[in-house]
Amino acid sequence: MSGIFDDDYKSFMDEGDKYLKTARGGVKRPAVFTAEILYNIIGLAIEKHVMGALMAKGKLADNHTFTDLIDATRQIGEIDTVIADQLRKFESYQNICPVFAGYHRTEPPADAIPEMIATAEAVQAWANKMIYA
Known about the structure:
Elements: H1 8-26, H2 35-56, H3 66-73, H4 81-91, E1 94-95, E2 104-105, H5 113-132
Helix pairs in contact: 1-2, 1-5, 2-3, 2-5, 4-5
């Protein structure tokens, strides 16, 4: 593959994998990894995996909110509706990157974290499928 992103997508995928691994381990250390910290780490894993898949196909997202990332997946192979719905739900906890709307943050409930990790794993699998299938 050649193009403006060359192998940069591999770095994004590797970083996403590392963030996801950190989140999985962080669940076991709640004194250090609060729900808010885990939310942000999981969000980074999701963002890196979607961006990696997009970059592998020479595409980019307009912005980095979960909604923007979902919309961008249409360029290469739309992400599953169930995953997209989960991402929109998670976005309601923190919306810190909107282009026109205001900043919004609430701490996600601790019981949402396992669900978020499962969704991040589904995004990781989707990204790998888009790149390597």
